[in-house]
Amino acid sequence: MAVESWLQMLKCSKKTALIHDGKRKIHYLFTDGNEMAEEYNLNTDVLLVRKWRKKSTLGVQGQWQLEIGEPFAAGPSDAEIKENGSNPIFSRTDTKTHFQWRIRNLPYPKDVFSVSVEPPERCIVVKTSNKKYYKKFSIADLDRIQLPLNSDDLSFTLVNSTLIITYKKPKEILTLEQELLKEVKKLKGTSENDVDCKTHGASVSRCQSDGDVDV
Predict the structure, then answer these.
(1) Tens of pLDDT, residues 123-144
(2) What are residue 16's DSSP bridge partners?
(3) CB count, 10 Å around CB of 17?
(4) Residues 123 and 188 placed together within one structural domain of the fold
(5) Which of 69, 126, 129, 135 has the fewest CB atoms inside 10 Å of its own CB, making it the most exposed?
(6) Is the pLDDT of residue 102 over 60?
(7) How many CA atoms lie within 13 A of 198 on its CB side?
(8) For residue 94, what pLDDT is reported?
(9) What's the pTM value of the predicted model, to 2 decimals?
């Protein structure tokens, strides 16, 4: 999908905005029934969360799948904390100019790690020389508009047992994000204190449901 096609798809989707807790929350409903939800920091315009909910071939709505954001942002249960306390935790938290991933709980020195781009597979590969960790992941933003991966744009560091992987955003992505932000800011963001979908029966064009907008 070309940049223009993806941007047009976003512009043509049914969008709902909600301003709450210092965030601009946007819900997208596409013509195929799939949904995307995003959260922006109101002060910095940095994208904090992006997640997807897609329909199966039978038309059944699936669970929300996180693309950007902390996996436990909603608050983990005690069981989740105990289970994942020592296991590596993978998350993506971008900046305005870079894609960025964090892998926590990796108690090895930096020289053990290898982080590389695999162009044929369109992915980034993380591995350790002691064979204690291996991870392969793609950059969804580049896949959506079929941009190639460049090894020169990739870097990594290790801080307090957390591997931080950074990939410089191509100019096409920066332009796309600026255009999308303009569209997002055109939406009249309803304050959560001003509307209650269930009580006041807001129309679908304004508010899909509590679960759809409050992301």
Answers:
(1) 999 999 999 999 999 999 999 9
(2) 27
(3) 19
(4) no
(5) 129
(6) yes
(7) 3
(8) 97
(9) 0.80
